[in-house]
Amino acid sequence: MKLADQHFCTGCGACVAACPKGAIERKDDSEGFPTPYIVEDKCIECGLCAKVCPALNPPKMNLIGDTYAAQILDRDALRESTSGGVFTVFAREIFRRGGVVYGCVWDKDYNAVVTKAESEEEMKPMRGSKYVWSYAGDTFPDIKNYLKEGRIVLFSGLPCQVAGLKKYLGKEYENLFSLDFLCSGSPSPLAFQKYLDTICESPDRSALDLRFRNKNPHGVGVHITYRGMKKPTSARADHIANPYYYSFYSHFIDRRSCYHCPFGTVQRIADFTMGDFWGIADYYPDMDIKAGVSALMVNSEKGIDLLKSVENELTLVKTKPQYIAKKNNLSLTDKPKNRTVVPFRDDFFLELNQSGWKSAEKKYLRNFSRLKKIIILKIPLRFIKLAKKIRK
Predict the structure, then answer these.
(1) What CA–CA distance (Å, rounded) separates 284 from 282?
(2) Whole-angstrom Cα distance, residue 66 to residue 64?
(3) 314 forms bridges with which residues in the sheet?
(4) Residue 134, C-beta contacts closer than 8 angstroms, at least 6 positions apart
(5) DSSP 58
(6) Res 387: pLDDT
(7) Cα separations (Å) of 342 from 1, 81, 348?
(8) Max Cα distance, the chain (Å)
(9) Are strands 100-106 and 67-72 parallel, antiparallel or unpaired?
(10) Which of 32-46, 77-91, 160-174, 225-239 shows the lowest mean pLDDT across its residues?
């Protein structure tokens, strides 16, 4: 048998979970992405791995339906969420129905992992952005068992993970709700851990408190904050000043399949798609923008019904897909927004493996383009601060 080419494999894990003989294992490639491979002497040539692979056999998709600007009414949950807190509202409804929720959390070593929650307390770590690739395939067999038992399941994850889950399941389940994101790419776990080495004294991450898109104290934005072990005081930086954040936003440490992802179009795999409503001030300035507003797309009849059951917990403003697509990785055709791989990508990972993050950053991230962006961002802020001091 032959698995999907490495440049197209999303690492969803469907093939690993589906193999009846355990003949597919995974190991990290040179960029730190877990990648499946076949153990030939175990393989019985059943073809199930190819059948469940969303890269080789694309799943059935839905068209975008109604679109909204959405914000949870619960102010505490809103403050702890990256944008508008929509995920919390859906999760609470699933718990009320006796169901289970799957989402991404940090483990004790700051690896992003998909896990389950059966209560709101267990669900809370799923809030907030984790800008690094996560593995979901280990959850697929358990999800299938819950669905067969009749329990309701909400699975939230990357579009490719939802696609992998649906291909693994092999049929539609009325008690499965899926939620994916307006994803712009999944960064390398290796790069992330190498970066964390620069702010932690040891592999022990227990004292680290890192948050992407922390709203405190200035409201929604693109800042990263952390309390590292090398710097016990909190540090805060934007998406240009922080080197890892910059590499994420520059898209040169994403998984190879992200550069030609088929899931960022008007055709959606999940019942719901959510993300940040960037540019919302241009359309709905009366909303509490600083607190964070989600873009919400409803893509199925099941999605419509679930939204109706929770609409009293949300501020919902009907909007147009064009407004969401303007500043998100969303194509309103069936053609994805493909990205060009930067020329120094391979050299960056080679340096990262050989000499660590600091050396790779020095060689490849301290460039004129980034310096120019820092100057453009920082200079006006300094003038504003100076003007405020003068007025005082």
Answers:
(1) 6
(2) 7
(3) 72
(4) 104, 111, 112, 113, 114, 157, 158, 161, 186
(5) P
(6) 43
(7) 32, 32, 10
(8) 78
(9) unpaired
(10) 225-239
Return the half-sphere exposure (C-beta side, CA atoms, 13 A cut-off) of residue 191: 27
pTM above 0.90, yes or no: yes
Residues 6+ apart with CB under 8 A from 343: none
Residue 386 and residue 392: Cα distance in Å, rounded? 10
| pLDDT tens per residue, range 92-116 | 999 999 999 999 999 999 999 999 9
Give the model confidence (pLDDT) of 107-145 as tens digits.
999 999 999 999 999 999 999 999 999 999 899 999 999
The angle subtended at Cα 133 by Cα 357 and Cα 178, nearest 5°, is 165
- Amino acid letter, residue 279: G
Q: What gap in Å lies between CA 322 and CA 328, rounded to an integer?
A: 10
Q: Which two tokens stand for residue 31?
A: 């960029």
Secondary structure of 300-321 as H, E, C letters: CHHHHHHHHHHHHHEEEEEECH
User: How do residues 356-386 score in pLDDT, each as one tens digit?
Assistant: 999 999 999 887 677 776 776 665 554 444 4
Cβ contacts of residue 199 below 8 Å, gap of 6+? Answer: 208, 226, 228, 229, 230, 231, 235
Burial 328-361 (b: 16+ CB within 10 A, else e): bbbeeeeebeebeebebbeebbebbeeeebeebb
**Least trusted range by pLDDT, from 35-44, 218-227, 271-280:** 218-227
φ/ψ region of 234 (left if φ > 0, alpha if ψ in -120 to 50, else beta) reads beta
Residue 244 vs residues 188, 198, 332, 361: alpha-carbon distances, Å: 11, 11, 30, 9
